[in-house]
Amino acid sequence: MSTPTTLQPTGSPLGVTAAAGFRAAGATAGLKASGTPDVALVVNDGPLKHAAAVFTSNRVAAAPVHWSRQAVSDGRADAVFLNSGGANACTGAEGFQNTHTTAEATAAALGISAGDVLVCSTGLIGEQLPMDKIHAGITTLSAALAEGAGNDGGAAAATAIMTTDTIPKQAGYPGAGYTIGGMAKGAGMLAPGLATMLVVITTDAELDPAELDSALRAATQVSFDRADSDGCMSTNDTVILMASGASGVRPDVGEFTDGLAAMCTDLARQLIADAEGAAHEISIRAFNAASVQDAEEVARAVARSNLFKTAIFGQDPNWGRVLSAVGTTGAAFEPDQLDVAINQVQVCRAGCIGDDRSLVDLSGRQVLVEIDLHAGDVEATIWTNDLTHDYVHENSAYSS
User: Fold this and answer.
1) Residues near 95 by Cβ (< 8 Å), separated by ≥ 6?
2) Are 119 and 64 in contact (CB under 8 A)?
3) Which of these, 201, 17, 194, 189, lies nearest to 89 by C-alpha position?
4) Which residue of 69, 207, 270, 383 has the smallest Cβ count within 10 Å?
């Protein structure tokens, strides 16, 4: 059993300013008690201002999600304002008005329309944002852009959107004459719902909004939708893709989608690597499945098994917990034909005892679980992490 080769982004500039036509900045507005950067701005200078986005499917969606979903519906976005230190979720009419005010203030500072400003927030649910600090942050960000710091501001923006993240997350992909760049935040509440966490992606390729939307949805399905840290879906999840057209290159949409998926996969894996308290990064590959849906369902069932995740934390290759999770799914398979390998040791063969489980080495951070369903010829991989004491501590003290 071996992991299939996948397209990987290499040798490219990183972040939201990697693509031509974009500026970014990050600053400290005082939203976080830590005094660390907490507001960011990404601006598309064109000539195109095309955009697409996907959002959480959580029915309890944050005010910025409602605003941005409507704002991007015309396929245009000139800028994205982001803040950490407050989710602006479950904040009622006042919270939505605060999002509207944020977009208006950003638009006034940049000389654009408020309807072309997308807004993203992350942090604690159920608290109003201090708008005086948001306004001050916008002033600081726009001044940084005006002073010419924006072309090098991608890293600062990626740092400013962190909450429980321990490191900023950036990626890039070099296309044929064009570039894709991006940043992401997320270390907990990572479970799919069209998107996971906050992500801003930029490209200087010439693509229309419908093409961007198609490419983004295809890319998120095989990247962010397959990052499943803890089974908990956020109220704020947003993935935004903006195109400036500054390269003058119009790529094949399929080729662009492949590159976008590769870069999104890079970011998704970075999120799992930084998952709260994680000691192991786990890839769960279900293959020889009857359908992609079956493969995803099987791999996700294992990824969401607390028994399995705690076993990996304890360096116990308990393959029985893998089989018991697989058995809860509606996927096509015969129980007496299932094979399971953990870090290349086939611990289960034909639904029964395989090689000696003591041969499995779980001392390293990377874990690969492979499940052969013997029911077809397609596969899917879900990325997750183990369940540790540190995860419990982090999330039991999150709002204190």
Assistant:
1) 62, 63, 88, 89, 128, 129
2) yes
3) 189
4) 69
For residue range 38-61, what is the model confidence (pLDDT) as tens digits? 999 999 999 999 999 999 989 999
Q: Are strands 345-349 and 339-342 parallel, antiparallel or unpaired?
A: antiparallel
Could you count the other beta carbons within 10 Å of the beta carbon of residue 177? 12
Higher pLDDT, residue 395 or 74: 74
pLDDT, position 220: 95
Helix, strand, or coil (residue 334): coil
Residue 371 zone, left/alpha/beta (φ > 0; ψ -120 to 50; rest): beta
196 catalytic per annotation: yes
How far apart CA 103 and CA 151 sit, in angstroms, is 22
CA distance 8 to 380: 16
Which tokens belong to 229?
A: 């840290």
pLDDT of residue 175: 96
Confidence of residue 8 (pLDDT cuts 50, 70, 90): very low
Report the distance separating Cα 329 and Cα 288, nearest Å. Answer: 16
pLDDT tens-digit readout, 133-189: 999 999 999 999 988 766 689 999 999 999 889 899 999 999 999 999 999 998 765
Contacts of 38 (CB under 8 A, 6+ apart): 27, 28, 29, 30, 31, 32, 83, 84, 85, 137, 160
- pTM, rounded to two decimals: 0.91
> DSSP label at 206?
-
Instruction: Tell me which DSSP letter residue 214 carries.
Output: H
β partners of residue 318: none
